[in-house]
Amino acid sequence: MINEMKCGVLVVGHGSRREEANRDVREAAVQIGRRGGFPVVQAAFLEIEQPNVSAGFKRLVQRGARSITVHPYFLSPGRHTRGDLPREVSAVAADFPGVSYRITEPLAAHPLVIAASVERIVETIDPGRSKAPEPAHFTARQGTVYLVGAGPGDPGLLTVKARDLLSSCEVVIYDYLVNPEILGHVPGSTERIYVGKVGGGRQTPQDQINILLIEYALAGKRVVRLKGGDPFLFGRGGEEAEALRAAGISFEIVPGISSALAVAAYAGIPLTHRGLSSSVAVVTGARSGNGLHERDTFRNLAAADTIVVLMGLSHLREIAHDLTTAGRSAATPVAVVRWGTYDGQQTVTGTLRTIALEAERAGMRAPAVIIVGEVVRLRERLKWFEESLEGINAEELEAALAVAC
Are strands 306-310 and 368-372 parallel, antiparallel or unpaired? Predict the structure, then answer.
């Protein structure tokens, strides 16, 4: 559970001369505390009403908060959220050097807000109109472990079932490549355990992860094992499922969108295309356990029209050599996509002859997906995602993820 003496939430409304509007903000703060499991919550106001932002911040500190999350409650995403609020919070925080803070994005056009607005509009236009049936809601069961795919990174690609299980679990055991935003679906009272594996860095042994899953399930907890991508595609989900079965633990597999599919799509590269590719091979760039490159794997798969390589960036030069040795033309197009589906997505293209050098020049590092085949040529016409990004920095994204983990 969130440490009651450490974390606080400041819910900031605009402030109005109408008391009912201010009362709405105060009630929202109470409900946010209850629903989110946040033990120290305070309402505050930008204008007119008290307490103001400074006084609200100080009240949280007096109640023991040492990390404060500031949430703009239906404030304008323009001047108020980007200007007034950050300035006021920064000014008061300067008086408390031992207290950290962060400010959430405003609700503004959040999909759930839009959905609720549409529902209210429809009810008003036609009060007698029957409501659409409620979507299925999946609730985690006690003593069960859910091996859940978190998808490739973009929170919008999380499945409905995964979201529901996260919102009802008591323990979430998650990996390095899970976008921290996805953990926003987890209640504040849920225990969060990070077991990420970072290449060349800190590692959590698989045996230890298996033990954690079993112990929490035997304690009757509702457990979500959250993995980047899909748990059964190079996610070691099969190993964890075997361990759970051997221990007599109930489990379910919740597939996720694999980066093998999503990253190519976000880079504007169709894995299959009439006249260019009718076969796809998905392969890992290194054997799990020893991290060594396996030459025979790529020689045997060289005939596939499109080859997608996960976790292979450190062996890119060897992979390109093996494929050309096996008969692929050195002029075969190749793309390397780093942090695919994230706002910091970065793509470098070349050929089997040049891609290793191009990737080195661009400073490409893991996590990255390699795509080999004629379909890469379509990227120049079909790329859509990166064109919508405005100055997002991949290094800043990586640093943010490291802090979150």
Answer: antiparallel
Amino acid at 11: V
- The residue among 257, 289, 319 that closes a domain is 257
- Write out the two tokens for 374: 């004629």
The residue out of 227, 257, 287 marking a domain boundary is 257
Cβ-proximal residues to 102 (8 Å cutoff; 6+ apart), any chain: 68, 69, 70
Residues annotated catalytic, as ranges: 175, 197
In a domain, 124, yes or no: no
Say which DSSP state 178 is in. S
Q: In this structure, is residue 185 part of a structural domain? A: yes
Which three-class secondary structure string do you get for 336-353?
Answer: EEECCCCCCCEEEEEECC
CB-based contact 225:145 (threshold 8 Å):
yes
φ, ψ for residue 70, nearest 5 deg: -100, 125
d(CA 173, CA 196): 9
For 325, how many CA atoms within 13 A lie in the half-sphere containing its CB? 12
Characterize the bridge pairing of strands 306-310 and 280-284: parallel
Beta bridge partners of 101: 68
Q: What are phi and psi of 98, to 5 degrees?
A: -90, 5
Tokens describing residue 151: 């998808």
Residue 346, φ and ψ in degrees, nearest 5: -135, 135
**pLDDT tens by residue, 292-328:** 666 678 888 889 999 999 999 999 999 999 999 999 9
Q: What is the dihedral of CA 102, 106, 112, 114, to 10 degrees?
A: -170
Cβ atoms of 37 and 50 within 8 Å: the answer is: no
Instruction: Give the pairing type, strands 7-13 and 280-284.
Output: unpaired
Token pair in block for residue 319:
């992979």
Number of separate domains in the chain: 3
Beta bridge partners of 370: 309, 336
By residue range, what is the domain housing residue 279?
260-388
Confidence of residue 115 (pLDDT cuts 50, 70, 90): confident
Evaluate whether residue 111 is within a structural domain.
Answer: no
pLDDT of residue 19 exceeding 80, the answer is yes
pLDDT tens, position by position, 97-106 = 999 999 988 7
